[in-house]
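A protein record pairs a chain with a discrete description of its three-dimensional fold. The following entry can be read in just this way:
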Amino acid sequence: MSTVSGLRFGRLALRVEGPALHPLLDAYRAPVAADARRVLLSVVASLPPEALAATSSVGFALTATADHDAITLGGDAARPTPWLAAFCELVARDAATHGCLLVHAGAVTVSGGVALLVAPPGVGKTTAVRHAVDRAFASNAVLLDLSGGTATVRAMPFTREPMPALESAATLPLSVFAFVERASESTVEWIAPSLATMRLMPHVTRPRGADPHARTRTDLALMLGGKARALRLGLPSGPGYLAALDAALHTTTNPV
């Protein structure tokens, strides 16, 4: 049975036509907006051979036209990974046109808003968010909205191992970039905004195919240096890093 559903990821609105959405997307449902991008959704037993290898490997194919996108999910419709990966692709591609960036990062709440925990896969940022307990904000991905005077952060559900308990429904200001490194004890070292921008660039999520908004995405990423302080955070096992992070953020002097 075909349905029409509205989804909203920050400023990006979608009109999805097709089978009922996966429950993990329920938190992002919204009334269908007049300016929503149309998405035709279907589920098939196996993906067509011409599907882009980078997307078919995670279970979906995407075809874009001038006025709509067509998403084809392959295999078991109950599996969350193809659903999340497909909509991640759309948000990664089009967020920049709405003044936003999708960033691969965990996030925890701190004084004044949210700290982004930025690191390559395997360093332990998701585990660190889990250790934050009631201060967990996002497990693996966030949407940064730079369209206003203050950068704001929303949790995004885009991970192959969904952790909805770690995804906040709130929207909070960006307080600090924390570039995470494994360490035997919690350490903090402030870094200059220009260095933070360069370190953040590899973690700005891009579409798997051609990037139609590469220049806009780069311009937004360059704006980030002036939106928040930045530091290097030594990350041991357990929740102890939060105390070091909180102490650093309560400094009364300009750290850099």
DSSP finds six helices and 14 strands in the chain. The longest helix spans residues 80-94.
